[in-house]
Specification:
The protein is α/β, with parallel strands linked by helices. It has three domains: 4-175, 3-Layer(aba) Sandwich (Rossmann fold), CATH 3.40.50.720; 183-428, N-(1-d-carboxylethyl)-l-norvaline Dehydrogenase, domain 2 (Orthogonal Bundle), CATH 1.10.1040.10; 436-463, Single alpha-helices involved in coiled-coils or other helix-helix interfaces (Up-down Bundle). It is built from 19 helices and ten strands. Helix 1 (11-22) links the parallel strand 1 (4-7) and strand 2. Helix 9 (211-221) packs antiparallel against helix 10. Bound molecules: 6-phosphogluconic acid. Residues 102, 128-130, 186, 189, 258-260, 262-263, 361-362 line the site of 6-phosphogluconic acid (6PG). 6-phosphogluconic acid binds at residues 102, 128-130, 186, 189, 258-260, 262-263, 361-362.
Length: 463
């Protein structure tokens, strides 16, 4: 009998199944199309011995030890409900379904509650690390009842990435906590990718550097404080050549970015919770505008470009600017996690989250160890940017970030995420802001009332 089941043998599901089999856990697999299941078994090589291929939900359930545990690795949304509906008649009370896709955490909350009412267990498990991570060790963010997780904890920890021998997997809270954390992880991922792309834009369009030269610079940075998976792969893709034309591969790629929704969900939740993740918002917006290719091509003809030129920006300034903006991207994500934890009473351990992001996931970076320590030491007013170990780093990096953005703006290079990072930093260090005027305007046109600095609410101005 197999110890665990998995349905959905797409790229991620297949990789995760092989990872589980390789760690010594017999696994039963299933896919909607049986051809894919057969092809998967062929690809599995010697690991096929630990794999039972099944051709129906009934057979999948029948191949499992009880109480059963089945991972669903299918696209978020209706396919997850379809799997649940298909599996349920073949399961017994106390069996467990694990949604390992990028689900919206509201769906996870609903599914967990629905299934609990019927006597079944359900876990929402965020898995990060792409295909390679899923195959050799992803970062795993688990949400759901702790009792439901207990029977599979050993397997999850065995397949997870390791940071200094510690598994990058944790049970983070009830119901949708795991999928929410994964969503915010992706929001931070969007911001970080956009920041790197903005630096690439300044080097390419502001300084006329070739992809190969930018690749070398990124590779060098990856040896320093910017060390991270995303900087590493950016160097690798910039160095790659198109086999057909022999030109740099990036030059052959259409500049319209895809998005499956997790970045947008991060923003929706941020706004709902009264937060504002502006660096992530800039990144999502940049992807959305990237899709308007024809309009942008027309805009290049219609709209006036600034007279100014981009002065040569020092490479060291760009490196420091990227680091400072990256810290702010993480800080906005962390603040959102804290707000959601309070709203949904999840008791999220932010330090633990930073720890399980140190290896395996897409946003893994040298910074995360420091972020984990900073959170453990306590964040003044809940703000990572106020943490003693980040105040000094930002004081050093912000002047470089200002120089880079000033230059980019003068030359008309779009740098929305970098500019948003500065806006957040300056807002948070402005004790007396400018919303006194907004309150006055609101009172003027709508008699909304304002609080006076010398006391009392609901005052009106002499307008
Ligand atoms: C990960 C990635 C992964 C996936 C995203 C990409 O953590 O492994 O985030 O989940 O690559 O879904 O999202 P977009 O298609 O929206 O860029």
């Amino acid at each position: 009998m197999a110890r665990i089941g998995l349905t959905g043998l797409g790229t991620m599901g297949a990789a995760l199944a092989l990872n589980i089999a390789e760690k010594g856990y017999p696994i039963a697999v299933h896919n909607r199309s049986t051809e894919r299941t057969r092809a998967f078994l062929d690809e599995a090589g010697p690991l096929a011995e630990a794999i039972t291929a099944t051709e129906s939900f009934e057979a999948l359930a029948g191949a499992l030890e009880t109480p059963r545990a089945v991972i669903a690795m299918v696209p978020a949304g209706d396919p997850v409900d379809a799997v649940i509906e298909g599996l349920l008649p073949h399961l017994e009370k106390g069996d467990l379904i694990i949604d390992a896709g990028n689900a919206n955490f509201h769906d996870t909350r609903r599914r967990e509650a629905d299934l609990a009412r019927q006597g079944f267990n359900f876990i929402g498990m965020g898995v990060s690390g792409g295909e390679d991570g899923a195959r050799h060790g992803p970062s795993i963010m688990v949400g759901g009842p702790a009792e439901s997780y207990a029977p599979i904890e050993e397997i999850v920890e065995a397949i997870a990435a390791r940071y200094k021998d510690e598994p990058c997997a944790a049970h983070l809270g009830p119901d949708g906590a795991g999928h929410f954390v994964k969503t915010v992880h992706n929001g931070i991922e969007y911001a970080d990718m956009q920041l790197i792309a903005e630096v690439y834009g300044m080097l390419r369009d502001g300084q006329g550097r070739a992809p190969g030269q930018i690749a070398e610079l990124f590779a060098e940075w990856n040896g320093g404080p910017l060390h991270s998976y995303l900087v590493e792969i950016s160097a690798a893709v910039l160095a790659a050549k198109d086999p057909e034309t022999k030109r740099p591969m990036v030059e052959m790629i259409v500049d319209a970015a895809g998005q499956k929704g997790t970045g947008r969900w991060t923003l929706i939740e941020a706004l709902t919770l009264g937060q504002s993740a502006t660096a992530i918002e800039a990144a999502v917006a940049a992807r959305s505008w990237s899709a308007a290719r024809e309009a942008r091509a027309a805009g290049a003809e219609i709209l006036a470009a600034p007279e100014g030129k981009c002065h040569p920006v020092l490479d060291s300034d760009l490196e420091e600017a990227l680091l400072a903006a990256r810290i702010i991207g993480y800080a906005q994500g962390m603040a959102l996690l804290a707000a959601a934890s309070e709203e949904y009473e999840w008791g999220l351990d932010l330090a633990r989250i930073a720890e399980i992001w140190r290896a395996g996931c897409i946003i893994r970076s040298a910074l995360l160890d420091d972020i984990a320590s900073a959170v453990r030491e306590g964040l003044p007013h809940g703000q990572l940017i106020f943490a003693p170990r980040f105040v000094g780093r930002l004081a050093e990096g912000m002047p470089a970030l200002r120089r880079v953005v000033t230059c980019g703006l003068a030359a008309g290079l779009p740098m929305p995420a970098m500019a948003a990072a500065i806006g957040f930093y300056d807002t948070m260090r402005t004790a007396r802001g400018t919303t006194d005027l907004i309150q006055a305007q609101r009172d003027f046109f709508g008699a909304h009332g304002f609080a006076r600095i010398d006391g009392g609410e609901g005052h009106h101005g002499p307008w």
